[in-house]
Amino acid sequence: MSSIENGEELEFAIRAAANQARLKAGLRGHYDVIVCGAGASGSVVARRLAENPDVQVLLVEAGGSDEAETVLDPAQWPLNLGSERDWGFMATPNPHLDGRALPMSMGKGLGGGSSINVMVWARGHRSDWDFYASESGDPAWGYDSVLDIYRSIENWQGSPDPAYRGRSGPVWVQPSRDPSPIALAMLDAAEEIGIPTFDHPNGAMMEGPGGAALTDTLVRDGRRQSLFRAYVHPWMDRPNLTVLTGTTVRRVIFEGRRAVGVEIVHEGRISTVRATLEVVLSLGAIHTPKLLMHSGIGDREELGRVGIPVLQHLPGVGGNLQDHVAFCCIWEYREPVAPRNTGNEATLYWKSRPELEAPDLLFCQVEFPVPSERTAARGAPSHGWTMFAGLARPASRGQLRLTGADPASEMVVDANMMSAPADMESALACIELCRELGNARAFAPLVARESLPGPLAGDAMKQFVRESAVTYWHQSCTAKMGRDERSVVDASLKVYGVEGLRIADASIMPRVATGNTQAPCAVIGEQAARIIRRAHRI
Ligand SMILES: Cc1cc2nc3c(=O)[nH]c(=O)nc-3n(C[C@H](O)[C@H](O)[C@H](O)COP(=O)(O)OP(=O)(O)OC[C@H]3O[C@@H](n4cnc5c(N)ncnc54)[C@H](O)[C@@H]3O)c2cc1C
């Protein structure tokens, strides 16, 4: 970066900090729209609404700033796990995983998940979006419409492909630069076993049976470009966008059936802020349903169990919890190969059975060993690479439950992974494909041996599945969009049965998207902002 750019950036940082300090000092009692949660989707909603200078937007975030090397240096992402930037959810012990309780990290702080994640940009499959359109009954959620949104939000840095990729949007997307030889070996291995490779993973590859490509990442000039950085950061000097960190939303306040504001904990005190137009929940797939329930919206029996008065019976709140489960297969290097960029530079999608309409397996290569706490004991190497071999279309569904009426109480996260028998069949196919890939000739110059799982058969491989399973951190679908009795929001993301309340985050996915989830969350944010602007002519 030139010294002029450096100087401009410094000047902007000073101006933005002064503006935000002034806005916080003069915190208003009401805003036009209150966006709760500055994560992947909330950042998009807040920025798009604040583009209208006449609209006063309050963006409330429980966590803190994203100014930290562990956030901004792409290689340091693993250091955020278990830190103060992680909500640190734990799933309940799972009998389908041999009693293991999995950590379920989610981002806490500006950018939410997009500030601690692995920076992969993956759009989802054509069939995901067409499914969302059919579930919601609105073609605006269909693939063709969403493709336009993706083109408009990307600032794509790879070879031009105007049918799929845009170049003038806020989200800087680049292919992995100067990738590790192990990532290139993965593409060669894919071709060797008959899986096609693509110039990039976010176009034709996600319209058919799948394929392999170098990963697209949200990294610019060697720094993480979270969705907060892409959308809100450049707007921090605007007088109509207040970004309030260290502030926890406790519940939505209603007058009758209309959401009129939120109750927050700010500087240790409980207070309320009113919204003249709308409240938007973007707290992620665990805290959005939690907040709904603490505000009286949820399953009548579940609320009654802990003594929360029911405002609106919606039995689907907190149900339908989905996530991608991954099984970590590991190969030992002949000679250590240092990870490059984000340490995850190649990706692959494929089908476990030829008759499927879309890929149901998702593979991300990680350039260091990542055993589970159980499989580490089986002998993971000190130098090696891992395939995060995962189920892109899991059949299992989890459930969130309340532990008390107090908004400060924690949720029970019953992730229930691998409970559906079909998932074990897919997992075995997934690991088989993973081993075929990892043991292909293309890896031979770099790899000494397969460390995990090795050639296990029958029950032994099923036990490996149970011991190696981890989350891909794609928690979603707990306040799904749709039209059945388990749906929580309609096609316009409005919560059923009340007014003035919408949800914009991973909770609304009717089914988890086929790939990594932050790009779909950006689209959900864009859709929400468009809908709100249209609804209020703002
Ligand atoms: C370790 C990790 C790695 C991942 N890797 C990838 C990847 O490489 N690519 C990818 O596409 N996806 C990845 N994901 C998933 C992706 O980041 C998430 O799907 C995405 O961030 C979800 O967006 P969201 O808007 O639903 O919620 P979030 O981004 O989680 O945002 C929710 C926000 O709300 C805030 N909040 C919650 N409760 C409250 C409250 N009561 N009051 C105020 N604020 C609150 C949170 O602090 C957070 O900032 C990863 C996630 C993790 C955790």
From TrEMBL:
The keyword Flavoprotein applies. Its cofactor is FAD. Residues 107-130, 284-298 form the Glucose-methanol-choline oxidoreductase N-terminal domain. Pfam families: GMC_oxred_C, GMC_oxred_N. It comes from the Bacteria. Keywords: FAD, Flavoprotein. SUPFAM superfamilies: FAD-linked reductases, C-terminal domain, FAD/NAD(P)-binding domain. Belongs to the GMC oxidoreductase family. This is GMC family oxidoreductase N-terminal domain-containing protein. It comes from Ancylobacter radicis.
